[in-house]
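Checked the freezer inventory, then went back to the computational side. Two predictions to log before the end of the day. The first one is the construct we discussed on Monday; recording sequence and tokens without edits.
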Amino acid sequence: YGDYFAWGETEPKDRYESETYLWTLDDAAKDQWGGSWRLPTKMEWDELLEKCYWVRTNINGVNGYKITAKNGHSIFLPAAGYRNGDSIDDVGSYGYYWSSTLKEHNSSNAYYLFLLWEDKHTSSSYCHYGRSVRPVAE
């Protein structure tokens, strides 16, 4: 499933809780991949939700969504779950993908893409949770 990151942090870690959160504004995608790679914004996640075709699927034994644009290009987002404390929860059932967007009027929360078999939408939560990242490039 790949690594999990707290929002604004650039390295995976063993524990994801408010006491271990570094309160930075870095971008894990940019730091890990370099170049023009970055985290998508909340608006970009919303656009993907509204303008693409989503299919729940299992690829090589991994549950997730295959998302296809009108031009035929597609990506796969696994249901990688999330990290809380030292445990990994919801693997195979849910996907949580950070955006680069902090929540207005509450900077301890950031937006993420939430994937559930029956639903998909953007939401917000505490920044200290370990969530997946899906880089985008300009």
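The second is the one RB wanted added to the comparison set:
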Amino acid sequence: MKLCIVTHNVIKGDGQGRVNLEVAQEAIRYGHHVTLLASSVAPELQQSSQVNWISIPVKGWPTEFLRDLIFSWRSAAWLRKHHCEFDLVKVNGAITKAQGDVNAVHFVHSAWLRFSSKNDMRLAGNGLQPRRDLYSIYQWLYTLLNAHREKKAFHQAKVLVSVSEKIKQELVDVGVPEAHIRVISNGVDLEEFSPGYADRSQWSLPAKVTLALFAGDIRIPRKNLDTVLHALVEVPGLHLAVAGITEGSPYLQLAASLELSERVHFLGERYDIPEIMKAVDFLVFPSRYEPFGLVVIEAMASGLPVITTATTGAADLVTPACGIILANSEDKSALVQALTTLKNNPESRSQMGQAARAIAEQHSWNKMAQSYVDLFEELSKRFKSDTKTSS
């Protein structure tokens, strides 16, 4: 099979990029030839005789939106000339103006737009003012334009792959027939994220306390750190490590105003999350809106119990044996109860961590990639059969 994958990056350290890296590697193992329309590609793929990299350079353009547009135009121009050379073309969201056979959907911008419009009152209730700076205006415009572009992309594809049941429902809500959607959850590196021990002192974290972890973009309200901080006030003795860019974040000031400075430890942007997960007791991630949430399955693979919300796609993988799912991301009382339960029960945490690891082992990157390649082979045979029938 000749497969074309259109994506910005095919590398580790990038959520969508990692998915495409694993899919490309699995396709190669199956003996297929892969063409990558991408701006950056992992060295191990560049060295493969089964891979053809068509570089789509966008470096130097000043904003992500402009880089996306340039990528979309350039990739579409190339595909218009070469689409007929492939058995199947896989795209991601609204990444290109050209039609894809399979569209892997990691985020539905129109759904987030509807959700975010309801957020301002929530923020005011939690002691935060909605951002009105250039960054927030840019993010709103970026989301609005992507919501417009992605609807066309979704309806062009023959099959859409959703990373969670949550995303599947959002696709149905924007008019995609349910029969056209397959759900393939994202995977996790079971070696990189594994149970173990790490000395907290390397991050200046306190040793003899129960320590939760929050990881995500703390410059925006979507990840819901504000509710976590307000809940933490009512759980004395519990400490919180926060991994995320602190520049431009309102949460350092909020933590100080709630007199939590001694119990909340802002670590800044981190690239050693697998090691940090070995040093904490559980993950708290009650995101207001999360298409999947790799950090959830990464924590599970690390043997950590998790607290998350029904609005997080990865909640599909969380059972009562390994974590706590909050029905409402704004329910501070329920979050207080969940935090208290995990703080006060170290034996339960240990049992839940073992159950979490067992579930994560069923969702390796390899198994995810196999599901994609199996789908590609199924569709390729169907497309060829349809072509013969029509001729």
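For RB: The CA atoms of residues 218 and 225 lie 7 Å apart. The longest helix spans residues 365-390. Let me know if you want it refolded.
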